[in-house]
Design goal:
Layout: H1 5-14, E1 21-26, H2 30-35, H3 46-60, E2 66-69, H4 75-81, E3 89-93, H5 116-121, E4 126-133, H6 139-157, E5 161-168, H7 180-198, E6 204-207, H8 219-232, E7 237-240, H9 246-258, E8 263-266, H10 268-271, H11 279-304, H12 323-326
Parallel strand pairs: 1-2, 1-8, 2-3, 3-4, 4-5, 5-6, 6-7, 7-8
């Protein structure tokens, strides 16, 4: 698979100079609101969420190659207020938060009134879709793949980079995702997800660490599982943090990058402890603790990650003599 001009630009805008994805994930909505401190007898308001999100973006975006934001509380607001630096890339989520269906049959949905076209129009560098996925969920699997194909087609039409985030889950009612039984299946499941969904044509896969590290302590097995994902994926992949503690995620990032990953897209592992704090204390913590965490992750990633260009040889020939005639743009 080769990248088109718009997608190349999206990759460059969202990656570091080393060609690695060092991205802050901050498109959380319902889960983020629940973390905020509320005044006694009151609920957290829209303005409270926007203000808290702005504080995080302002403090942390200069320390990331790009920021993944939601369209409801933070993406347009960060642009309009000027707190998102022009040198920091912008990914915007296209999905509605949560899922429909039961816990063992999860269907993702696009946010009503929102689209790839609007994300492109607002000046973002990339589109992100999150799907809950299990390859053996039958009709639910078909639905998730159909939704993914639709977004992929729209991203090709508007020539914008597409990041597909995949979160696994158990389709067996009595088999919890945190159980030892699910942990035993996890390396193969994440590898199969990388292989199967990679064939649909996403530009980047945002994947869970392929080992349940709470049930498997051998870091050699961690590395082998990551290598299997790298071999199975047909595009670059970046590891997500899934809310684990920072020190653990830092180790996961190094092992994943040494094993073929092209970076990380990290959320709660970076900023979760600071969100329940009072506003002034939160701002200080973000500047002094969370920002340093991103710097540490970026240093590791730039040193060990597989640059995304390695997966797309010959990109320099994309703009050939006749590229103006062949470029389809918005057709």
């Amino acid at each position: 698979m080769q990248l088109t001009i718009g997608k190349i630009r999206g990759f460059v805008a969202t990656s570091s100079e080393a060609g690695a994805f060092t991205i802050l994930a901050f498109d959380h909505r319902q889960s983020f609101a629940k973390m905020l401190p509320a005044r006694q007898g009151e609920t957290v308001s829209y303005a409270d969420i926007v203000a808290a999100k702005a504080a995080v973006v302002e403090a942390l975006s200069p320390h990331a190659s790009a920021v993944l934001l939601d369209p409801e509380y933070s993406a347009a607001q960060s642009i309009a207020s000027g707190i998102l630096p022009g040198r920091t890339g912008l990914l915007v989520a296209v999905e509605q938060t949560g899922y429909s269906g039961s816990a063992t049959a999860r269907k993702s949905r696009l946010l009503p009134g929102w689209s790839v076209a609007k994300i492109k129009r607002m000046g973002a560098d990339a589109v992100k879709l999150l799907i809950y996925y299990h390859p053996d969920a039958g009709e639910v699997t078909d639905h998730q793949e159909m939704l993914t194909r639709e977004v992929i087609q729209d991203c090709r039409r508007y020539d914008i980079a597409f990041f597909l985030e995949v979160v696994s889950y158990s389709i067996v009612p009595n088999l919890d995702k945190s159980s030892i039984g699910f942990a035993a299946r996890r390396p193969k499941l994440i590898r199969d997800i990388a292989s199967r969904l990679g064939t649909l044509g996403p530009d980047v896969l945002k994947l869970e660490f392929p080992v349940d590290v709470f049930n498997e302590s051998d870091e050699g097995n961690w590395a082998r599982a990551c290598e299997a994902v790298s071999e199975a994926a047909t595009c670059p992949w970046a590891v997500l943090s899934a809310g684990v503690d920072f020190d653990l995620f830092k180790r996961q990032v190094e092992i994943a990058c040494r094993s073929g990953a092209s970076g990380y897209i990290a959320g709660r592992a970076v900023w979760k402890e600071g969100i329940p704090m009072p506003a002034l204390q939160r701002a200080d913590w973000l500047r002094n603790v969370a920002a340093a965490r991103l710097d540490q992750l970026s240093e590791i990633t730039d040193r060990y990650a597989r640059p995304w260009r390695d997966l797309f040889p010959g990109l320099e020939n994309t703009a050939s003599l006749d590229w103006l005639d062949s470029y389809s743009g918005f057709n």
